[in-house]
Amino acid sequence: MKNVLGLKKTLIASTIAAASVVAPSMAAAEISGSLGIASMYLWRGQDVSAGTANVSGSLDFTTDAGFYAGTWISSAGTAVAGGTTSTETDFYVGFGGEAGGLSYDLSYITYVYPEFDVGAGELGEIILGLGMGGFSATLYSYAGWEKNISDGGDGSTDMSFGDDNYVTLGYDYEDFGILVGTWMYEADDSDYTHVDLSYSPIENLTFTVSKVVDSDKFSPVSDDQDPLFVVGYSFPL
Description:
Largest sheet: 12 strands, antiparallel, barrel
Strand content: over 45%
CATH topology: Porin
InterPro entries: CHP02001 (IPR010239)
Number of domains: 1
Number of strands: 18
Signal peptide: 1-27
Order of helices and strands: HEEEEEEEEEEEEEEEEEE
Protein name: Histidine kinase
Shape: globular
Oligomer: single chain
Distance between the termini: 20 Å
CATH architecture: Beta Barrel
Organism: Alcanivorax borkumensis (strain ATCC 700651 / DSM 11573 / NCIMB 13689 / SK2)
Radius of gyration: 17 Å
Structural class: mainly beta
Keywords: Signal
């Protein structure tokens, strides 16, 4: 997942604004789950499901103290040669709460891609989210050992904590939302920024349009590409 809070929701909300994945309730100790479907897997301004629909599900455990843990499973994960995608399973743990009107969330998430032999702990992020009123800010910082999964290779790349970072700023007002996300890669001339606009006319149904508005020469996406449109629906179990 790429995706994952009130604030934690941002991680996969960009991916599945659509199927707003994994937003565990901090109100009480409980086990909860959700199912969702989206017209594509939108992840940080990118279509990583090769234009196909995506089905996902989550299972979460939360406590009164604000600690939580869970998993999110998706039918699409990352692009593979031939216009297909891998599956994806995410595992995460974290702690969140609110003080003086300021909400906060600190979590760790690891991404698992069985088709590429990428296991738990090999590819992950540390996530820090803050929010107040309708505003939110979230930092995702690389943490793990990243395998070369872009072309199905078996090689690995040794990366240090914080080499790659992704930052979002968001604002929600009633049924509308805006999210600006920026990738800051360690590799030179690879950064890009995207803007997502969302609308939820009814509970659990979300329409999202995403556009890359600025991109460096070697970024994985270009600001010349057309906007991406996603519709998604999720419901609790």
